[in-house]
């Protein structure tokens, strides 16, 4: 063959195939179905977010209820007790009595979660312990004067 001109369709360039190209459509459909199934599985396996449910005053401190066990970081800072929970919830505040003296508490939202501050006119020490009760997490905070 000495050229690209067509002589009775005997040349080196093949003719266009009149059949539709289905392979890209099949691969695209498989990718979309796989993405949708992956999103459904991911939605089913994500745990529910940790949430502060309730705060109750106790005889010598507070009882804080969560739906699951939160990550907790607690410190004694200049006579106050500060607890940081890796959870979601509403801001709240209140007052309780320890040894017939007032203690103010406040929960506020921060970037790291919820921060519980316990403040009194005199320095405080706190001890906390948690346990699972009836499918919820109960954190008991016991306060005493320093």
From TrEMBL:
Superkingdom of this protein's organism: Bacteria
Region (Disordered): 1-22
Feature: compositional bias, Basic and acidic residues: 1-20
Protein's name in the database: Copper resistance protein CopC
């Amino acid at each position: 063959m000495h050229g690209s001109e067509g002589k009775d369709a005997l040349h080196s360039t093949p003719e266009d195939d009149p059949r539709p190209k289905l392979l890209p459509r099949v691969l695209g459909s498989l990718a979309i179905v796989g993405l949708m199934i992956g999103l459904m599985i991911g939605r089913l396996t994500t745990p529910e977010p940790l949430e502060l449910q309730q705060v109750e005053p106790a005889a010598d401190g507070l009882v804080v209820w969560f739906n699951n066990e939160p990550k907790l970081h607690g410190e004694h800072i200049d006579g106050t007790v500060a607890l940081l929970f890796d959870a979601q919830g509403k801001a709240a505040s209140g007052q309780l009595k320890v040894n017939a003296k007032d203690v103010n508490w406040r929960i506020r939202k921060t970037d790291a979660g919820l921060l519980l501050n316990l403040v009194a006119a005199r320095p405080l020490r706190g001890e906390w312990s948690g346990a699972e009760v009836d499918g919820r997490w109960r954190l008991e905070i016991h306060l005493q004067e320093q």
